[in-house]
Amino acid sequence: MPERSFFSSPARMAKSSGEARIFHHSFPATPIAVRDALRAALARFVRVMSEEEAGTLELILAEILNNVVEHSYGEAEEGSITLSIVRDAQGLSCSVSDDGIALPMACLNTGEPESLTRPDPAALPEGGFGWFLIRDLATELGYRREGERNLLAFRLPLAPLEDRKAG
């Protein structure tokens, strides 16, 4: 079955941004493979991001990918994750997919504005603060279950590429 993409075609992105960078990596759902994937993703974009932007990307991806390993597959011996990131003129479009159990919709519940105040980490169950951080730092966060596959996508706004070239 052909893989569907959350992103515009690379040719269209290169034309609109002047410099598209694409990262696509499939790896086993293990803590060591997550660490290696994070390192590879950051290395791919280090020249088109500030240090702060790279830290934000690393935090979001670490939370998502480690949640997949810990909760989507749990004690299962097998599992895989696919991470795709595209740098365009507005920032990074990221997608994570896996074939583990479905993501509880409460993780993505954005609620009313007053419910989005920063929670007290001590009052949250283990892992509860991570989803708050993801929702706080990423935009256009979306999830759907397609067959037996989880598809999570988000955008991380970055300073325009043109500003980086001028600076």
Automatic annotation (TrEMBL):
<keyword id="KW-0723">Serine/threonine-protein kinase</keyword>
<dbReference type="InterPro" id="IPR003594">
    <property type="entry name" value="HATPase_dom"/>
</dbReference>
<dbReference type="InterPro" id="IPR050267">
    <property type="entry name" value="Anti-sigma-factor_SerPK"/>
</dbReference>
<protein>
    <submittedName>
        <fullName>Anti-sigma regulatory factor</fullName>
    </submittedName>
</protein>
<dbReference type="GO" id="GO:0004674">
    <property type="term" value="F:protein serine/threonine kinase activity"/>
</dbReference>
<keyword id="KW-0418">Kinase</keyword>
<dbReference type="Pfam" id="PF13581">
    <property type="entry name" value="HATPase_c_2"/>
</dbReference>
<keyword id="KW-0808">Transferase</keyword>
<dbReference type="InterPro" id="IPR036890">
    <property type="entry name" value="HATPase_C_sf"/>
</dbReference>
<feature type="domain" description="Histidine kinase/HSP90-like ATPase">
    <location>
        <begin position="27"/>
        <end position="155"/>
    </location>
</feature>
